[in-house]
Structures are given as structure tokens and as C-alpha cells.
Amino acid sequence: MQALASTAGMERAAWLKLRRQGIGGSDAAAILGLNPYKSPLAVYADKRGLTDDAPDTETLRQGRDFEAYVADRFAEETGKRVRRCNQILQHPDRPWMLANVDRLVVGERAGLECKCVGIGNRVDFEGGAVPPTFYWQCMHYLAVTGLDRWYLAVLPLGRWVAPYIFEIARDETQIDELTAREEAFWTDHVLAGVPPLPIGSEADEAVLTRLSEQHGQDETVAIPEMDADLDLMAALQADRRALDAQIEAIEQRVKLRMGSAERASGNRWRVDWKTVETHRLDSKRLQAQLPDVYRQYTNIAKSRRFRVTSIREKE
């Protein structure tokens, strides 16, 4: 295995800077479009330095702190010995493929990835399910290191159960597919400075908001090719309105049958239709009667509003 740098004693800021020199295991599923919290555009923006480093959240902190515990429990459950790597590993032929591995397994051509998941996680680990984000991270590590297998130990926090342990075998077909996708992403997007198209995720919206903070007011740009996208969007919106109307009609049919009852039961579904009391602040009345109080407790937030108008309608 080839190393890019030692991480022993390395500051987090320096580590994050080195990660931008290539694609890491946590980027793999996002590049494939399989990470619900990270998109290809978000990876691109990070590698190009267009967005700030992600804040060190409590979730990330606990993940790092529990890593040693999960590794110890893995060793206890399996009887295997593990050791820290303390290096950023690098693919021998593709230097942009990087790996920050949690542990290497002593006496085997294998590594270990340690994960913690929150109490609200719905993955059926008991039934053998492995989330795509975890699976492709391990497959990326296998590609970088050339090892034969990667173990995955997942600790569900707050559930008082032992870590779930999985063995992910090396799969050359999937490694070739992943490597090709990552190489195309690195070459065609990151190095070329061409952002990948958004996929409609919250991560994409966060990136676009960040990139547009210093926008030119009253500036107009010509984008003739956007018409095809907006034509499609208009058609999809029409379909959505039709679907929303069908959904609303179904709700109304059930309500009609329920009459004054607050609950209804079928063979597969239950419906609750109860009165809910909602308290809303009358901001207009407050502003009129107590303008000083209104100003004192009003926060002003600025955002860019995206509005589409048909040119034919304006004419």
C-alpha cells in the first residue's frame, strides 16, 4: 500500500486540505448518486474549494470518539486483531484515489470500517442490510489498497446491542465500475472545472445558495438552452397538480364517509381526523399596535427567490 502522508498528530484543517487532493471513501456513494446527504455537486464544490469546510458537528465528534470502542468490540466479537493505519493511503496508479481507513486487520489482507448510527436509523442491519454509503466506501478502500476484504462494524447508538459485523469481499467488476465513475468525475468535473448537474437534493440547494451569495443585482444572463429544461419542468408541474388533485379527492371521499367520526379503520389503514388547535402570531396587528416591539423581535433574512415566467404570458 502506498501512502500520501502520515496523519499522526496532523491538525484537522491540514487533513481536510489533503482530502481535497483526491477522492476519498466517503465521496464514493455521493459520486454514484447514492448518498442522501451528499451530492456529486457537493463533492465537486468541496474538491474545488468553493465551499467552506463542513463544521465539526456533534455527530462527527461522536463518530470519531466511538471509533476506538467499535474497533475494540469488533476484535472482541471476532477474535481478530486490528491496528491503526495513521496514514492517508493512495492508489499506486491513480494518485487521486485516496483512503483514510479506520483500521487494518492484523494477519489478513483486510481492513475495518467502524460506523455509528443514530437511534432513528431504519436500516435492517439485523436482516443483513448494508447502506450503499457504507458499502461503496468499503469498495473504494478495496480499490485503493488492493486488499481482499473489508469488514464493516456498525454500532446503533442508544439500542443496547452489540455492533453488527459484515464482511465485504473484493468484487473486481464493481471495483472497475466504481473506479471508472470516479475517474470520469475527477477528470471531467474536478480537474476540468465543470460542475456536475444537480440531482434535486438538499445538498445541491445548499451548494447553490452558498455559491450565489455574491451575486450581481439586476444582472441578466442569456441561457437559450434553459428553455428545454423549463418546458419539462412546466409539464412536470402540471402532472403534479393533477396528482395533487387526485390525492385531495381521495382524502375528501374518506372524509365524506367518516362524517363526524374522528377515526376510521380499514383492513390495512387507519385514519385520524381530529381538531387541532394552532396558535399563530398576528404580525400585522402587532406591527400596527406595537411597532417598537415588532421591530425589536423581528429578524430580517435575505434569500434569492427563484421565479419562472413565460415570456409569452408577459407579451
Write the layout of secondary structure elements.
Elements: E1 2-6, H1 12-19, H2 25-31, H3 40-47, H4 58-78, E2 82-83, E3 87-90, E4 98-99, E5 103-105, E6 110-117, H5 132-145, E7 149-156, E8 164-169, H6 172-191, H7 202-211, H8 226-258, E9 263-265, E10 270-272, H9 283-289, H10 291-296, H11 311-314
Parallel strand pairs: 6-7
Antiparallel strand pairs: 1-3, 2-5, 3-4, 5-6, 7-8, 9-10
Describe, in plain words, how this protein is organized in 3D:
The strands form three sheets. The protein has a five-stranded mixed sheet. It has a three-stranded antiparallel sheet with strand order 1-3-4, covered by helices on one side. It has a two-stranded antiparallel sheet with strand order 9-10. It has eleven helices and ten strands. By secondary structure, it is an alpha+beta fold. The mean pLDDT is 90.
